Amino acid sequence: xxxxxxxxxxxxxxxxxxxxxxxxxxxxxxxxxxxxxxxxxxxxxxxxxxxxxxxxxxxxxxxxxxxxxxxxxxxxxxxxxxxxxxxxxxxxxxxxxxxxxxxxxxxxxxxxxxxxxxxxxxxxxxxxxxxxxxxxxxxxxxxxxxxxxxxxxxxxxxxxxxxxxxxxxxxxxxxxxxxxxxxxxxxxxxxxxxxxxxxxxxxxxxxxxxxxxxxxxxxxxxxxxxxxxxxxxxxxxxxxxxxxxxxxxxxxxxxxxxxxxxxxxxxxxxxxxxxxxxxxxxxxxxxxxxxxxxxxxxxxxxxxxxxxxxxxxxxxxxxxxxxxxxxxxxxxxxxxxxxxxxxxxxxxxxxxxxxxxxxxxxxxxxxxxxxxxxxxxxxxxxxxxxxxxxxxxxxxxxxxxxxxxxxxxxxxxxxxxxxxxxxxxxxxxxxxxxxxxxxxxxxxxxxxxxxxxxxxxxxxxxxxxxxxxxxxxxxxxxxxxxxxxxxxxxxxxxxxxxxxxxxxxxxxxxxxxxxxxxxxxxxxxxxxxxxxxxxxxxxxxxxxxxxxxxxxxxxxxxxxxxxxxxxxxxxxxxxxxxxxxxxxxxxxxxxxxxxxxxxxxxxxxxxxxxxxxxxxxxxxxxxxx
Length: 625
Known about the structure:
The chain has three domains: about 5-100, Arc Repressor Mutant, subunit A, CATH 1.10.10; about 130-360, Rossmann fold; about 365-495 and about 545-610, 3-Layer(aba) Sandwich (Rossmann fold). About 40% of the residues lie in helices and about 15% in strands. It is built from 25 helices and 20 strands. β8 (about 260-265), α13 and β9 (about 290-295) form a beta-alpha-beta unit. The longest helix has 18 residues, at about 105-120.
């Protein structure tokens, strides 16, 4: 390795601008090319660090702004055998594509995703009978345009569509109508029923979609045979693609594609670039893909912001003249206000933003607060909290105050005492049939999910471990739990690593309960809500000793809460500025609440978070425009 880079790498780690992993990557590259220029190795280490922060690539022009001696790094990168600048070179670990520097694997993912989407954008047509079926599914509405109707039309027109919108805007309702529409049109053409699969990134998100979709199918204004052809089963993406333990590869890929005609993926904001690449790789070339999600939520935990990239222009619409005219014909809608022929691109014609929330009414503090945060309006957010009628509240956080709120709730809203009281009150008799304990276990999970404390991170007094400890101590002091042993009745736990052997996924939540052991005694078991092979939710009891990777979950991070909703949600922010505090984190936390939300933060910290919008570096959108 070039001698003069060693002290720099060490200093960057001390200053926490690089990780030991990034230094190790630079050292590895030096073994591949003993004459590698220090600037190339430094750029590689910084690219590795950016990837760890969620960025797919780094703009080499920005490197010199951070490290002045990298001002001419682009020339060195182009000359280095460690870096490819053409599509033909498949051996180099780095790729310089224009001014963007990638690790090769992630460059390959991005190019693959862009290519797969572009090929689907080229598929376009108007199914016979589309206009009449849309009119039947969507009766005249006083609110014009009807974005749900427009979303169905656009998704029916091609092989790729993105439907984005905030909570309560009707994403699930829209997709159920879309599936009814597609099956109706297929049946009327005399074709076989479409093979439709529904998926979500996590088990929680899949269970939530599964619970809401069945009832909507029954209410759908279509023939009985069409209803029967719409699946209510939802699976996780990992299960759909066929996860292989200890491998990045899936059973389904380009050589073994999925057997389906339509794939709908909910909570798409949680999908990272690598998972999107695997999904598109496993899709048959003529299959239709529909992505649903909220573009303003947190991006995926792993690198990339695929939904954010795809929806970056959704707010403005940017429909071309052909799309505007086509929508007028099939939807009887005037879209002149959303016409932008100069800026319109092919991707824009397949993206629809639902703009009318039905969950949060006109006087909803949660809805108003979420909207103010989404728009970056700090003043409006503060005024909304001050003028609240009771569904939202701002409290200055103290370590003990957060725990007290989590236990007792606020002004009639539930805290954790409520689910522990429910467990004791509804406990079956010891000799009750086992299905009574299964029902009790399911009820305990529902009671627990009425409230959730969310934290911005795992660090400090407002972080997950500290709050888990304080809440457990507070519950024990009130006689609600017994924490003398690691496992105790009422302990909520979250799975922290996929466990394929017992069928539990990262993020699954269970409650510890005493149940009959089948031999006349009682035993502690952890009850989980799981999906069976048909996508139906059921409860499952697991022996605690089989849970190798779990943690207590009185508190969880905002990231872990995605795909869930709670009657009362409280969000604790740190008392000092932090890199984790962003507009997206705050918005995601607020929108987990169904009826009540409590923000545990100072006004200054709230304003700091709203002002900081996440921008993940990526070349995906430019490849699609």
